[in-house]
Amino acid sequence: MTNQTQSSEQGDRYSRQERYTPIGKEGQHRLSNSRVLIVGAGALGTGIAETLVRSGIGHITIADRDYVEWSNLQRQQLYTEQDATERMPKAMAAKKRLSEINSTVDVVGRVMDVRVDELEELVQNADLIMDATDNFDTRLLINDMSQKYRIPWIYGGCVGSYGITYTFLPGETPCLNCLLGEVPLGGDTCDTSGIIPQAVQMVTANQTAEAMKFLSGNSDALRRKLLSFDVWRNEYISINVDGARKEDCPSCGVKANYPYLSASNLEKTDVLCGRDTVQIRPSRRMKLDLKHTADRLGKLDEGKVEANPFLVSFTTGAYRMVIFQDGRVLVHGTKDTAEARTLVHRYFG
Question: Residue limits of the THIF-type NAD/FAD binding fold domain (predicted)?
Fold first, then answer.
């Protein structure tokens, strides 16, 4: 194939997208000059990244701390059996595959545990943040960073056959902190309750559709409602949450101080002296239903559950995790705080 022929065919790459009137050539030009940060390279992150790369977003950064495992292949669409065999870091395996899909997009893979300092670096020059995380501590960091720098972000979550998504627009919509306690945003995890890929695909379709609207200059078409659905039960609900916006919200209110960017409100991790144990304390107070937690973990076939009125102990492989009613977890069997956080988010959400 000659360079001239290849160039001509490359020119047709986005022709079907450009023929869609709301996007057109001008919208496609906007997309090619956009910069998107994707936090997380799991099921949601890989689906989001592939769609945006195929759509011609100019620059994409994808950050993740984990590596590819065999259980990921059922729903994390960018990875191969070789990636799982080699335990490739997800961010680098994703970058490789995405660059093969569209070499004209600048794809950056960052292998990192995204905390405040890392996120501060990652959001510089980003036009949009895509949530593909597996825990609310990171989402609350994203939320406050979004408000601080006035960068929109698109939340997404799924477990079982259930999915949920919402587009946060600083200064226009309530923020995640406003919604806490108002709508059902959290719950079980994929490792405890399973997940079907169709739920993932529905969430990423809605997340990326919102991203395309915003980045192509069609913000007036944004949904502006919280969408939740269950693809197995055929339930779809669109909720107007405008009334949840709080003037005194510490994250987005008139006197915002971005509490989740402060050390006092971060999830705390401590390596216990003389022991292969990490203690993790949640960023906010909670009162767990220990019976529900024990029942959830008891349904798994990969570990041993023991419980009393004060705590639940869950042993899987070389690790034993003990969770208390206040949300504090002791992870026995490691001194690696990032590994401990991964385990806690996997089994306790």
Answer: 14-250
